[in-house]
Write a structure and sequence with these properties.
- It is a single chain.
- The strands form three sheets. Strands 1-2-3-13-4-14-18-16-17 form a nine-stranded mixed β-sheet, with helices on both faces. Strands 8-7-10-5-6-9 form a six-stranded antiparallel β-sheet, sandwiched between helices.
- 26% of the residues lie in helices and 27% in strands.
- Strand 19 and strand 20 form a beta hairpin.
- The chain starts with a helix and ends with a helix.
Length: 416
């Protein structure tokens, strides 16, 4: 498994923001012969292997030649965003002789995991004319320093962090200067001073294999870039015969998916409809196609924690390196049905990889994914699955090294 994990590590290190995920995936697709199509192009003749990008979202496909207009789609979905600290529009702040950056919490971060880490800055700059510039300052620039134990004697019993007051990083000393950050980031990106930006702080420590047996992978943004990697890898290797294999990597899942590139937005639906129209089909063909289609929503699962085994249902405790987990919730926080669970079980068995089942405790509500949203918008039978991991939503997360390739192998089967 060394080669796939090294490739995943390279993917993670190259993708410190959703916009970098899109670039990483697009570069890999293009290298494999996929053709990029613009959303405002004439789609009367689509390439058999193609993709579209939109801000932090990607949709890509591989189609056999001469498919019928009502042929089904085999979908795999994931999301490009991760919980983090984002730079505010007017970031220059500070007090008591320290220069600080004003940040906004994005998603449900583990607050304490961002303390005392060397943080870089990455994302997208928007210029006054509306053009964009990607930037990645992949060296230690900022740090959120924790208060010393001598000044907070009760910290080990009760750590409470006010997200407005206690998560503002330092990035130098001296008097704050309005406009300083904008000028600095423009110099780093080699462009004019931007009008606005979408910038995230991230831990610059590279993804790493760890453990005496090298069985574990530690990295930022495993949730959910791991699934993005697996979906793209599976699509490139897929050989579909009677359906279009397709991946959708949505943005903004961590904050509810309600955006133009989120699962609640129209991006995927429009691509599916235009595929049917490009084959000479009509809306009736689209509806027939959707009714025969399926979707695997891939988003990491909670592995059983050795120090908190009581947080799991006794009979549903996924372990790392024991295969992807099928995620089930009767209250529809996951879109899995018994039929779609069996579908993914067959895929794992065909791929020769193990699988597990995750159901949360009755007194421990679970999160949700793009799965229920995709199923609701399109009426596509959907299964929620994910690689088990620890430290979900931490600045640095942990999973097994066997599971990501296993997920990719199962997805290849669902495509092919």
């Amino acid at each position: 498994m060394t080669q796939p994990i090294d490739d995943l590590r390279a993917f993670l290190d190259a993708s410190p923001s959703p916009f970098h995920v899109v670039k990483t995936v697009a570069d890999r697709l293009a290298a494999a012969g996929f053709v990029q199509v613009a959303t405002d192009d004439d789609w009367s003749e689509l390439p058999d292997d193609g993709f579209v990008t939109s801000d932090g979202g990607v949709v890509a496909w591989r189609s056999p030649a001469d498919l019928r207009p009502d042929s089904p789609f085999r979908l795999a979905g994931a999301h490009t965003d991760s919980p983090c600290l984002r730079i505010k529009p007017r970031p220059d702040s500070g007090t008591a002789g320290w220069r600080q950056l004003s940040v906004e919490v994005y998603g449900g971060i583990l607050n304490n995991s961002w303390l005392d880490r060397d943080l870089g800055i990455a994302g997208r700059l928007t210029m006054r004319d509306g053009s964009h510039v990607l930037v990645d300052v992949d060296r230690p620039i900022a740090r959120v320093p924790q208060l010393a134990v001598h000044l907070d004697r009760g910290v080990n019993d009760s750590l409470k962090l006010d997200t407005q007051q206690h998560l503002q990083p330092v990035w130098g000393i001296g008097r704050r200067s309005p406009g300083e950050f904008a000028e600095w980031i423009a110099t780093e990106a080699g462009c004019d001073v931007p009008a606005f930006w979408d910038l995230s702080l991230y831990d610059v420590q590279p993804a790493a294999v760890l453990g005496a047996d090298r069985s574990l992978l530690a990295s930022g943004r495993l949730d959910n870039q791991l699934s993005c990697w697996a979906a793209a890898d599976a699509l490139i290797a897929a050989a579909p015969t009677n359906a279009t294999a397709m991946i959708v990597l949505n943005d903004h899942e961590e904050v509810g998916s309600s955006s133009t590139t989120g699962a609640g937005g129209p991006l995927l639906e429009r691509v599916l409809e235009r595929h049917v129209l490009s084959r000479g089909g009509a809306r009736a063909d689209l509806l027939r196609s959707l009714s025969a289609s399926s979707c695997v929503s891939a988003d990491n699962a909670h592995a059983v924690h050795p120090n908190y085994t009581d947080r799991h249902d006794p009979e549903h405790q996924p372990m790392v390196n024991a295969g992807p987990a099928i995620k089930i919730n009767s209250n529809q926080r996951y879109a899995t049905s018994s039929s779609t669970a069996a579908m993914f079980q067959r895929a794992c068995e065909s791929a020769g990889v193990p699988f597990q089942v995750f159901v949360s405790r009755n007194n421990m509500p679970c999160g949700t994914t793009i799965g229920p949203i995709t199923a609701t918008r399109l009426g596509i039978d959907t299964v929620d699955v994910g690689v088990p991991q620890l430290s979900m939503h931490s600045a640095r997360e942990l999973c097994g090294t066997d599971d990501p390739p296993a997920l990719a192998a199962a997805l290849r089967v669902t495509f092919s």
